[in-house]
Amino acid sequence: MNIIGFESSCDETGVALVSTEKGLLSHALHTQIAMHREYGGVVPELASRDHIRRVLPLTRQVLDEAGLTMDQIDAVAYTAGPGLAGALLVGASVAQSFAWARDLPAIPIHHLEGHLLSPLLAEPRPQFPFVALLVSGGHTQLMRVDGVGAYELLGETLDDAAGEAFDKTAKLMGLGYPGGPALSKLAERGDAASFDLPRPMLHSGDLDFSFSGLKTAVLTRLKSIEKRSGHLEPQQQADLAAATQAAIVDVLAEKSLKAMKRTGFKRLVVAGGVGANRLLRDRLVLAMKKMGGEVFFPPLDLCTDNGAMIAYAAACRVQAGLVDLASGDHAFTVRPRWDLQEISQGRAEGEAHA
Ligand code: KG4
Ligand code: ZN
After folding, report:
1. Ligand 1 atom closest to residue 271's alpha carbon, by position in its atom list
2. Is the overall model pTM greater than 0.90, yes or no?
3. What is the CATH number of the domain that holds 284?
4. CA nearest ligand 1 atom 14, residue
5. Which residues form the domain of 45?
């Protein structure tokens, strides 16, 4: 079965083709980063308009690359939430129109389920059950994953997401948008020990996170440097970037380990844009080696938003028997706010498909 997937929840337009038998056939992506850069963040109205411009050329591209025609598509998947309402509506309406015109089933997908299952697109594939660390621009969550559709929240951020912490501190330091990649690049030439930054909630005893205090701590350091010498030297900027990255990664790694201990699982899966962070990857590989576990990441190009994870999540749900393929109803809605646990079927059902 060939499934076409559309992702348009934020600032990336992604389209992909996945076969339930052969896996990923093709995927194409347009990132709006350059367009939003001059505003220092995502402008929702511009995002929606750009999705409209990009979605059909990208659709043609993935069909050509896979050597398929529209007649060979069997189902249409799209991100139904969470995300920006207007942006989500673009992907949803294109997908539903496609499905209606070709009389195909349409499969709404939760964006985080896409991220969560994306490490299964890489080899070696993690087996269920596992602990998932979801770290994106909008979410920071630790989940217990027993199978497709069987998700249990173990802990989450109480305020800013990890990606947001990268983005906001980078902005304070005058780095570009998005801040994560810029800050981690700068951190390579910095000394993390030069600044003593807090590790919020490191010893809170639970699996929750809080990153807004870190942003305030960075602002305080910047203000005191400005007061002393008027400006930030390039080396100081690199040192502060390294210290910020180290603080975020310390907390993410420590809480992930705690989640492994609590569940007794030996497999950790990392997903979402911050999963591209080199220090986080290295730290988790080392930590898992120490505890006799394994850590899995999505392919680097599928860490940030993309259509492949949406088409793939739909394929997983179809194979797990969680989709009503006979439904011809093309009325749709999007869910800008949507808790992943709402789509969880509970442990037993997921395990059957592990
Ligand atoms: O998953 P994603 O593409 O979008 C959301 O669903 O939010 O994640 C984007 C986030 C941004 O906050 C970005 O700064 C962060 O991922 N990010 C990184 C890196 N690459 C992307 N953060 C740290 N290090 C990176 N290398
Ligand atoms: Zn995302």
Report:
1. 1
2. yes
3. 3.30.420.40
4. 180
5. 2-116+303-353
